[in-house]
């Protein structure tokens, strides 16, 4: 049985995003990416952190983790509120209608909720 985790990032705070990414790396170091299903849900001002144009060091980390199966789910409502086009996001990101809906759905599906 795969472990399931959803990490929630809701503020434009690099430290929180880095903590979330480190949490994923630590989980994978213990059980391996094949033994865990991981999603990162971003809503609120955190959606700013996932834009391609931001030359932040964690963008490579996001792409690497996506290659290992981590899903980065970005709230369309938050993008609209902040007037960020979907085309501005990193390639690893998937836009979902509402971050809150994804969080609820994933928890109903048995994902552990983690708020770094």
Short description:
This protein has about 120 residues and is α/β, with parallel strands linked by helices. The chain has helices at about 15-30, 60-65, 75-80, 100-110; strands spanning about 5-10, 35-40, 70-75, 95, 110-115.
Characterization of this structure:
By secondary structure, the chain is an alpha/beta fold. The chain has a single domain (3-114), classed as DsrEFH-like (Hypothetical Protein Ychn, Chain: A, 3-Layer(aba) Sandwich). It is built from four helices and five strands. The protein has helices at residues 14-31, 58-67, 76-81, 99-108, and strands at residues 3-9, 36-42, 71-75, 93-96, 112-114. Strands 4-3-2-1-5 form a five-stranded parallel beta sheet, with helices on both faces. α3 links the parallel β3 and β4 (93-96). The longest helix has 18 residues, at 14-31. The protein starts with a strand and ends with a strand.
List keywords for this structure.
about 120 residues, alpha/beta, Hypothetical Protein Ychn, Chain: A, 5-stranded parallel sheet
């Amino acid at each position: 049985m795969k472990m399931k985790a959803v990490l929630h990032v809701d503020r434009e705070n690099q430290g929180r995003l880095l903590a979330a990414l480190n949490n994923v790396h630590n989980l994978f170091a213990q059980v391996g990416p094949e033994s865990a299903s991981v999603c990162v849900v971003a809503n609120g001002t955190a959606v700013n952190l996932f834009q391609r144009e931001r030359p932040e060091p964690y963008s490579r980390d996001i792409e690497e983790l996506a290659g290992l199966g981590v899903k980065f789910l970005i709230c369309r409502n938050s993008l609209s509120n902040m007037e960020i086009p979907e085309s501005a996001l990193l390639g690893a990101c998937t836009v979902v209608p509402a971050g809150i809906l994804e969080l609820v759905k994933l928890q109903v599906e048995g994902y552990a909720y983690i708020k770094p």
